[in-house]
# Entry
Amino acid sequence: MTTRSGKCLLLDTPSLYFRAYFGVPESVRAPDGTPVNAVRGLLDFIDRLVKDHRPDRLVACMDADWRPRWRVELIPSYKAHRVAEERAAGPDEEEVPDTLSPQVPVIESVLDALGIARVGVAGYEADDVIGTFTARADGPVDIVTGDRDLYQLVDDARGVRVLYPLKGVGTLQVTEEATLREKYGVDGKGYADLALLRGDPSDGLPGVPGVGEKTAAKLLAEFSDLAGILVAVDDPRSKLTPTQRRRLDLARPYLAVAPKVVRVADDVPLPDVDTALPRTPRDPAGTETLAARWGLGGSLQRLLATLSS
# Structure
């Protein structure tokens, strides 16, 4: 990874293009009638983010595998409800709106032509790519995502924040440790333990039956982390109630594997890419061709103007 210093903006690109798809009318189409609402919406998102946050580096992190086998082997229900088709070789096919899937290759082509670093690594989700870039960064990092799982990376000491879109990307919740403590009672490091204890139906994570968010937060406040909670389960003198002790004891098989599933990887083999914010397109002719072919109009022109300013 080159150009390490300076402020880095990491995009959870799938999260953002899903939001763009549902936030921009499908009536936004290419000259041939193909919907390009996700493409144009994402370009508008990136334009606004660069204008507002002025990063030195920018990475569009991608899902090379949205449901990695190593996570499914540990918790078979992981994202199982979102599988459109299981595949023996390669990633399972995700259930995605019919008019969104064809837009993803267009998004990738436009990012490449612009020279915006686009990184996906086989066997890993975008979250894992983000986690690894964050671990390797030597400057402040802003992570833009609609996925609360990435709150676990928030770290005031290292200048790592999550910018969580509340409405488009014009209204972002700037998530720092104070935000997490106020809302969840934990800091960034504690968020993964909170998430695995309470579970997450949207990701097919069962959690510990009977342990919701408030109970999980209280347990972590009392016993520090998951390891401390499990020590308390074995300690008859601990302040766990009999019901809590029983539920946590029965959940040991899940709690043994859940941390690896819930915590984002920080050791992904990243390719050597130039993450510097591009000032001019890497492929000017290709950018013009894509703009005409897909009718990207003002969305692309605004982003080009922002990048060059």
In short: The longest helix spans residues 37-53.
